[in-house]
Amino acid sequence: MMRTRDLSYWLFLAPVLLALSMVVIIPLVFGIYYSFTNWNGIEVGGFIGFENYLNVFKDKEFLDSLWFTVKFSVVSIIFINFFGLALALIVTSKIKTSKFLRTIFFMPNLIGGLILGFIWQFIFIKVFAGVGNLFGIESLDGWLSTTQTGFWGLVILMSWQMAGYIMVIYIAYLEGVPTELIEAAEIDGASPFQRLRYIVFPLVAPAFTVSMFLTLSNTFKLYDQNLSLTAGGPFNSTQMVAMEIFKTAFGESEMAYAQAKGVIFFIIVAAISLTQVYINKKREVEM
């Protein structure tokens, strides 16, 4: 009986392992190998060691895009999780339209990144300009034409798209909070903020770990929204790492160099993600 169970387990797991190997593991291994060569997409060429990696740390455009990506990710993670939790608290409260609101809040996540970028590009450029002309607000004219407004445009777009998705995660944990604890705290005279701080937050701590991991990975690897909203402009000042790597590979045909950038980017994201998960898990235990 035990052998049959073990065999069936591996039979069911085999398609997933095969797909994971073909799509992730094998390309990653080949990519790391190519990063040590002068591969141009057609011919592998010779082995050049760490030359590509050394050049990456001298590449100002890559370092600027990495710094912009880090700033964007930090701000976006705060905004997305704040609004996601706020929306979850709204729709889990005792209001009649909670199911309707859940649908409305989640819908932006169903829109493709490129389409979403073009929609917000129209809003930031045409709608903002119209409102600025109507009320005489000059600061609304020329949105996305500067690094600062382009940065906040990307943050707004990403927050609007992902807040509803993160809301669903928080809802799952909020609905698992025992009502008896909330009622007991209310009877004891705890304020709404105290109930939220000392009862709700500790019980939904695992949701913070999951949500921060998802928002971190999604904001760091952002490409399609960046392409359709600002295209990296002006003068590549809002260019994120994924776009910079893509341009190096397919715009400049430096595949091996782009692959080296990709490996470094992978290591950075993996290190930050694992550190974040470790810290949050540790805090869960302490709570």
UniProtKB/TrEMBL annotation:
Keywords: Cell membrane, Membrane, Transmembrane, Transmembrane helix, Transport. CDD domains: TM_PBP2. InterPro entries: ABC_transporter_permease (IPR051393), MetI-like (IPR000515), MetI-like_sf (IPR035906). It is a multi-pass membrane protein. SUPFAM superfamilies: MetI-like (SSF161098). The chain crosses the membrane at residues 7-34, 72-92, 104-131, 151-174, 195-216, 262-279. It is found in: Cell membrane. It holds the Pfam family BPD_transp_1. The keyword Transmembrane helix applies. Residues 66-276 form the ABC transmembrane type-1 domain. Belongs to the binding-protein-dependent transport system permease family. This is Melibiose/raffinose/stachyose import permease protein MelD. The lineage of its organism: Bacteria, Bacillati, Bacillota, Bacilli, Bacillales. The gene is melD_2.
